[in-house]
# Entry
Amino acid sequence: MAPKAIVAPSILSADFANLGEECRKTIAQGADWLHVDIMDGHFVPNLTFGPPVVGMIRSHVDKPTENYGKGTFDCHMMIAEPKKWVKNFKKAGCDLYCFHYEAANSSAAESPETTSELRTSPRELIRYIHDNGMLAGIAIKPATKVDVLWDVLDSPHAKERPDMVLVMTVEPGFGGQKFMASELPKVQELRKRYPDLNIEVDGGLGPGTIDQAADAGANVIVAGSAVFGAKDPAEVISLLREAPPDMKRKADAPADRKTPVKKRSKNALTDDEAKARFRKGLFDNKVLSKYTAEYASSTPYKHSVISDLVDDGLLRKVRSEIKANVSFTPKETDIYKIHQSGDLANLDGLDNEALAKLPSLLALRDALYSQTFRDYVSHITGCGPLSGRKTDMAINVYTPGCYLLCHDDVIGSRKVSYILYLTDPDTPWQPEWGGALRLFPTVDREGKDGEVAKTPLPDPVKVIPPAWNQLSFFAVQPGESFHDVEEVYHAASKKELEKNGGRIRMAISGWFHIPQIGEDGWVEGAEEKAARKSGLMQLQGNPDQHDRPQARPVEIEKSESSQESDEIGFEDEADLEFLLKYLSPTYLTPDTIERVAEHFEENFSITLPDILHPKFAAKLRKYVEAEEGKALPEDSETIEKGAWKVARPPHKHRYLYLQPTVSEESPLKELLEVFLPSRQFRVWLQMATRTVVKSHDLTARRFRHGKDYTLATGHEGDARLELNIGLTPTDGWGDEVEDDSDGSDDEAEAPARKGANGKAKANGSSNGKGKGKGKAIDKEIEPKDEIEVGGHEVYMAGDDDSNEDAAIYKSSAEDDNILFFQAAAWNKMTLVLRDSQTLRFVKYVSRAAKGDRWDVSGVYEIEEQDEAPEDENGTSAVGVLDDSEEEFQGFSPDEDSDSD
Ligand SMILES: O=C(CO)[C@@H](O)[C@H](O)COP(=O)(O)O
Ligand SMILES: [Fe+2]
# Structure
């Protein structure tokens, strides 16, 4: 007889203050059994309860009328001496006593009050449980091999054979842990050998993991947090129950079957059903051959573009459903600015209620992941079998100003990336609106060690504009499949935007994965191997040695620097005169330097407006404005024929830069090569920051609007001092309200401003930072009067958790993480003491900006401070700013600064 499907909610996650009622309710909501976790604080590092509590709750739940019947108390004994408690638990009302194999060779004493020199064994214990009138289960922890069970399962004596095997899919001890798919091969093996066996899985089970467990062959499903944490536990229970019947079919199959169990597709379509959901003729051999040939010869890496993929009527319905039922939330990090469908971040995570509103979307998903279409994609790409179960897709919307910067899409088991565009079918997308998928070429570079690494070049060479019902896809290749989504450009006016249908670039982006456990083509360890390989490729594939610019620290003679640190003030007239040529006089008075130093010491950062002397600043401004007036070549190669170089690789950063020594005379060269490296400025800097500088490394940077950015990176080694002088001559960068120091926190006021607590942050109203409110997309696109143009520099707390979506969602620039923020500005210096964990980035500069973002950036290695100001965590750099920090509001404009 094939084992029946059983759902056993684990009451570990129930309300213990109300346990009897919770148990009664759960059975009434459709549960078959109750899974009762008994923990003794020895076998597992947690305590729950003993026989008295089990006895109390027993009175709230009717006893089962048959073996395995409704109301079975499935006691999961995570205790060190299981034999001692058999009788007590029987008395309390336990029906199935499931001990751990790892605890089975323990005392043979028959009660907790007694001791015994003898040891029991799995076989003996099972017999003993049976003799005491209960069903017997045997459980194994993740570290235990399944092979240890053959001895009991193959015992010639029925009394010594267990009625159930429990395969733990988490480390026992706590509810709410992550499901370990790595344990499923044990289930598969058990099912293969024992088609009739009750196989229970426990730990991390819920709607998102049930399929894998059921596919592997489990029929008893324990779920704690997924049931008791659900708004509607009955719904979850029924969902869990939906999975096992399929397994039942597998269990009915001949026991000696050698092939792995067949995959359980969500809504498996026949070949004809699947084909009917695509455009007519798509599956013709000639058409397939054409796409296959095109794919093979495409550059810079293999990709495919298929127009009119889906049946037009179906896709129109999908679009309407999404518009009516899906809400979008603006999300923004260093690498993207998009609107994400909140709960649809992954369709797999949706509950039944939400799914019911999206029938066409589900029909589309089932078609895309049908065997028929997967075979089609496999044929074109030649990348082998693809999973029909891991249906990884999300809906993203790009409105004007949105983009996704360069990355290679490599994560876990992803095999093919795809984008299916759902732009307005009746207002065709125009390439000049942006939003294209752009592919970057890579070059092989030989490193110092002779190793060859692929690195992407800064300019994309293939541009694929969106189009209604067009599918673009490519095989995910570590270190190779670099691509971005071009900014969707702002329209010149509201009227034009309306005419363009809002320029809403809606698309489904998703991935095909390698086959999962239980599916045809699944290879044990393949997923882990792919993950290891991609991690390695990402580390090795882009070693810093090929990055540009390379750090060029100029060391300061040790004797010279420590001597300077003792000096306070500029005794020498000539030194003062030199500094006065470049610095605003305000910043040269001992009083001001003292105040700057105090502020810096307290906050590890400071912003100094009007830093450069007005006369020098005016000269500089004239130069920068003139440069900006000149047309720049589009491609990096031509640009690099001049003085400016292009920072790369683009999955780390892209901007133009100058490093000393610059050939052409200019005030910028003077700043970079005369003033900033001077001994006099170093003395000033050391006084203003109370540090001792060991080296400096200076770079002038120009971030072209519509092109450039840096992504968040940390740095290695000790805390260092970072200087930045904003040299952006245009306005509209969100810096204008900065002098508003009334402490109010009216965030909607400007694109970027300082928060009331003094902590710098970006505007929550439209920057989103992952906290925006979900809105239907039509509402969201209402054009704002103020356009955010980016270009701000952000320091944020590093995140140790490697987010699953890290390749795209590099860093979640949540407000809470932001430690320091500076909008692009003119003549403003920022100084930040930064530790190695602090991430820093310059936000992509929108094409809507009035001009480019210019600055000079300096990195100073400093001597370790003897009496470093430390916070309570003992750290002394940006990276540990707390909420009490106060932003230095700068100095009020001075009379003698005849500012331009
Ligand atoms: O035995 C255990 C934990 O040791 C389980 O029964 C958990 O209680 C299951 O909880 P979820 O992982 O389903 O939340
Ligand atoms: Fe359990």
In short: The pocket of fe (ii) ion (ligand 2) is lined by residues 10, 35, 37, 76, 202, 222 (CB under 6 Å).
